Amino acid sequence: MDIMPKGLLTRCAGSLFHRKISRRLIPWYVQHYHIDPEECDQSLGSYESLGAFFCRGLKLGSRPMAADGVISPVDGLVQDLGRIDSMTVFHAKGVPYFLGALLMETVELEKWVNGCYVIFYLSPRDYHRVHMPTDGTVVQWKYVPGCLYPVNRFGLRTVPGLYVKNERVITWIKSQGGPEYAVVKIGAALVGGIDTAYPMPKFRPRRKYPLSQQGQVDWLACKGEELARFSFGSTVILIFPPHFIGPFMVQSGEMVHMGQCIAPLQD
Length: 267
Fold this sequence. Notes:
Radius of gyration: 18 Å
Number of domains: 1
Helix content: 10-25%
Strand content: 25-35%
Low-confidence stretches: 1-5
Strand order of the largest sheet: 11-7-8-9-13-5-2-14
């Protein structure tokens, strides 16, 4: 896996996906991945390219929004969930990860101890936009450059520590009347960048950046508003502090839709 030209592959794919000629592939893509065209915000012939179709919106009303609790920010598979232990370690498919390495943080990690995490995998067939899990204010972002390994089952099996090796964008959200939590958006092979709805510089995969870049922001948004989007399937990880949510209402291996309640908020 380490010798795969992941950056070159992504650049070549991105160049093809966003050309008009690629729109001819949309009907095949819809059929191959069993996508319901009735949910798309436009007719299939209206998308200018396959890349535009990847980033498609949803038709109004196609995703009911739970009024209470924390919602799933994406359509996808619940890959794993659980509690963060006293060593600030979480697990994905049995592999332990140090939270500090994921967030690129070395201080105040103890605030996450006994908190919770949930990992969502977005396959190529899924809707690729990420939405606000709660009402709140985006207060900080961090861009971490990295590799672009596939985040599917093959990638998880063959690349140790995949989530802390791949490019990612971390968003800290101050919940309304509560503490901050983190939304980690992880890039992958064929993901030509992660675009955010809030103000943040545009970083392109495989360019020469410092170890990480970060900034402060004050961006108020309601639950369900768009937060970011991928150019292809990838992974989103929610990191919650202790006493923020109640028991999860979903389980590992379950398919979820954006807007579905995944856990109640604790009073």
